[in-house]
């Protein structure tokens, strides 16, 4: 797995944890921001992972 995919996966996991903490303890709108960041980083991780695979014809 490429390095950028691993970094974005780590950001996704940390953003998910931050969203849970924010929904439990903080303002709900901040939790929404963290959920959106988790979604973007998840898509980035999938993109970089798929881009690194060789194209099979």
TrEMBL record:
Superkingdom: Bacteria
Transmembrane segments: 28-48
Keyword vocabulary terms for this entry: Membrane, Transmembrane, Transmembrane helix
Protein known as: Uncharacterized protein
């Amino acid at each position: 797995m490429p390095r950028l995919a691993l970094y974005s996966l780590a950001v996704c996991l940390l953003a998910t944890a931050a969203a849970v903490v924010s929904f439990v303890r903080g303002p709900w709108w901040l939790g929404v921001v963290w959920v959106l960041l988790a979604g973007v980083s998840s898509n980035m991780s999938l993109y970089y992972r798929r881009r690194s695979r060789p194209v099979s014809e």
